[in-house]
Design goal:
The chain contains 21 helices and two strands. With 462 residues, it is mostly helical. The protein folds into four domains: 1-81, Outer Surface Protein A, domain 3 (Alpha-Beta Complex); 161-217, Orthogonal Bundle (Helix Hairpins); 258-374, Serine Threonine Protein Phosphatase 5, Tetratricopeptide repeat, CATH 1.25.40; 380-460, Serine Threonine Protein Phosphatase 5, Tetratricopeptide repeat (Alpha Horseshoe).
């Protein structure tokens, strides 16, 4: 556990007053953990009986306390879910007992697919970031520092959530999301800037974004990730311990025959699953060992390729290693550095092809290749400048041309050609004030640029 874990183990979580568990969108595993919380069972015991890994139990409990779903040792916080309208008499008692029994009992129908369950979960509500970490003296806007700190807190989320796409997003959507995030979090953006302690944070964020993109983009690794997730959900939900006896007793005592029958059936089903538990656990452990062995073999192959500077091959092997053993932090940490090398290599190949297309005066193909290269190397100033110029000359997408032009000027603000191209793009888009600003900046850098002078005179004639 984290610092303070020893004190936390003695704490006793309970549902917040007025909270209706049935209204919380939970995964099956989370629903089962919540059903173990009765206001008497200490945190330490919940880590053992919660049906999840102890670290995951800690994470869920801490999040629920922060969100107001739970209170600890009577320290109440506002409930995260709205209180349902009060019901009078025996009907209210019957409904509450039945809801508790349904929450406590394992699901009788097959659990939802992991992707669907994850997509249905609400965004994690985190505590405010530590404002003391912000530093206005760095070469990094305070708002950008806040964004980095906020994103860093999300690094434990599923891959699709990190990228901000649905769990069933296709490869194109994954690629677009990665490209947008890499423009903000790629370490090259902060090259030669004083970012203080935010530099390592950006590196860590980008490694995880890169990992998410690569593993979701590759059909083989994505299939393995989804398969492993299904196995984890099955392991967590197929054979949990029986429902809480208090909840069953309350349901059986109700005058509602249907609720009593449901509780009795749930208890019988749970007992049956308990008898199957040793066999299921053994099968799961065998399967887990086989996956870890495959991961080790792929990782060793990747290391061999990396030492031979076959970056793309190395990245492919380590990508598969992660897919087979996603909990191995050593493999995941190594992947970021290996994949960065592979991206640099891929960008180099694409830029070579793009310049070849330029030599053949094939502007459209050249633009396509430059754009593909920028996915892997988004902060290459020359590639951004050339892409901006090509997009402007082809004239199909001024918004795209403006984006590349702005980034080129951000990366190299003192290059006259970059400012001139951006000025021309603004002029074509009808943004005269912006065009004038950029063209005048270009002429200050290069007073002899005739094209910039003509474009500036053209603005005056409009």
């Amino acid at each position: 556990m984290q610092a303070g874990g020893a004190a936390r183990e003695s704490q006793v979580p309970a549902l917040a007053p007025g909270l209706d568990p049935a209204r919380l969108p939970l995964s099956p595993a989370e629903g089962y953990l919540l059903s173990r919380i009765d206001g008497r069972t200490p945190w330490k015991l919940l880590r053992e009986i919660g049906g999840l890994a102890p670290r995951e139990v800690d994470r869920c409990l801490a999040r629920w306390v922060e969100e107001g779903v739970l209170v600890v040792n009577g320290a109440a916080k506002p409930a995260a879910a709205s209180k349902p309208p009060a019901k009078a008499g025996a009907a209210a008692t019957t409904a509450a007992a039945a809801a508790t029994a349904r929450t406590a009992a394992p699901p009788s129908s097959p659990p939802p697919a992991p992707a669907a369950a994850a997509a249905a979960r609400p965004a994690t509500v985190s505590a405010p970031i530590d404002e003391s970490l912000l530093n206005a003296s760095l070469d990094l806007a305070v708002e950008a520092q806040r964004r980095i700190l906020a994103y860093e807190r999300r690094l434990g989320e599923p891959y699709h959530a990190l990228l901000g796409v649905p769990a069933d997003a296709d490869a194109k959507a994954v690629k677009r999301a990665y490209f947008e995030l890499s423009k903000e979090f790629h370490p090259d953006r902060y090259f030669r800037r004083n970012t203080g302690p935010f530099g390592p944070r950006v590196e860590k964020i980008f490694k995880r974004i890169l990992e998410a993109y690569e593993l979701l983009s590759d059909p083989t690794t994505r299939a393995e990730i989804e398969r492993a997730a299904r196995e984890r959900v099955e392991e967590e939900t197929v054979a949990p311990p029986p429902p809480a006896s208090a909840a069953v007793a309350a349901a059986l005592a109700t005058p509602d025959p249907k609720a009593a029958a449901e509780a009795k059936a749930a208890a019988a089903a749970a007992s049956k699953r308990m008898r199957q538990l040793p066999h299921l656990r053994a099968a799961h452990l065998k399967q887990l060992a086989e996956r870890k062995a495959k991961a080790r073999r792929f990782f060793e192959s990747g290391v061999t390729a990396f030492k031979a500077e076959r970056w793309i091959e190395a990245a492919g092997s380590v990508r598969l290693a992660i897919a087979f053993d996603p909990t191995n932090e050593a493999i995941r940490d190594a992947f970021g550095d290996i994949q960065r090398k592979a991206h640099d290599e891929r960008a180099k190949q694409l830029l070579k092809e793009a310049n070849g297309a330029l030599d053949l005066r094939d502007g459209r193909n050249a633009l396509r290749l430059f754009e593909e290269a920028l996915v892997f190397k988004p902060h290459d100033p020359e590639a951004n400048a050339t892409a901006a110029r090509l997009a402007f000359l082809i004239g199909e997408d001024l918004k795209k041309a403006k984006e590349y032009g702005q980034r080129a000027c951000e990366l190299e603000p003192n290059v006259a050609a970059n400012r001139k191209t951006l000025g021309q793009i603004y002029a074509a888009a009808g943004l005269a004030a912006n065009a004038k600003r950029e063209l005048e900046a270009a002429l200050r850098l290069d007073p002899k640029d005739r094209e910039a002078k003509e474009a500036l005179r053209g603005l005056g004639r409009r």
